[in-house]
Amino acid sequence: MPAPTSLTASALHAGYPGEEVLRGIDLELRGGEPPLGLLGASGAGKTTLLATLSGEHRPTHGRVTWDGREVAKLRGKERRRFRAAVRFVSQYAMTIADPRETVRSRLELAAKEARKGGRTHAVSPAEMLAAVGLPEHLLARTMRTLSGGETQRVALATALATRPEILVLDEPLTAVDPTTRTQVAATLAATIERLGIGTLIASHDVDLLRRLCPRIAFLGDGRLLADGTLDEVLARTEHAPIRDLAEANPVAVQRFR
Length: 257
Ligand SMILES: Nc1ncnc2c1ncn2[C@@H]1O[C@H](COP(=O)(O)OP(=O)(O)OP(=O)(O)O)[C@@H](O)[C@H]1O
Hints:
six-stranded mixed beta sheet; ABC_transpr_LolD-like; AAA+_ATPase; ATP binding
């Protein structure tokens, strides 16, 4: 069996004109490993990091590599392979979906594109809906008829349908109510583990990250300030951004102590 794919950030800097957001990030995601959670205050740069890892935003210094190849330099067929293998589900993923399209055609199109990118083991649409806790009959519905939480879960199912090697999720279940979120987190975790997908999940939801991610990295001041279990990370109160988060979430933090 080939070694699991890795996606690596090395001394990564990225930002926007006049604003350096990431200032030296080292991180590795590998297929077959448990999901890594990413915590950080609003504006800390979580989305910027996820977009840069996924090749959607260019680093200013340092690099992102996919199995040793620099992502910013991938072209043509290699770039298509990368885009099929490393899937980014943004907070706004489905705002670009055609509202008249059915859920089935959305999932089938994703799987077809993935096959063009060399992913031959796409998963059936019904199976992927089940993985995000949605019933099969939703396949016949058009995107415009879905609730916010259903839309968000279809975005996740669309990424899973391509059976990626690496999944990069930005606030994946914010539009889903807390009870459903807990159930979906469990099925999602099982699917990610079964398919061996290396996953990075950025969220403000401490509870969700605790459920999904045995390891958490904390982004603050442009760097990864701490990494470990949730408890280990939240104990690093010498870092002001971690102290602020722990103080702002006393119930969530306490529940898991
Ligand atoms: N396209 C852009 N142009 C200029 N600045 C941007 C752009 N996108 C993000 N920023 C800025 O970069 C910083 C980091 O933003 P980012 O969205 O990565 O943070 P975040 O941790 O994901 O925040 P949140 O948790 O609120 O989603 C913020 O100060 C933001 O205003």
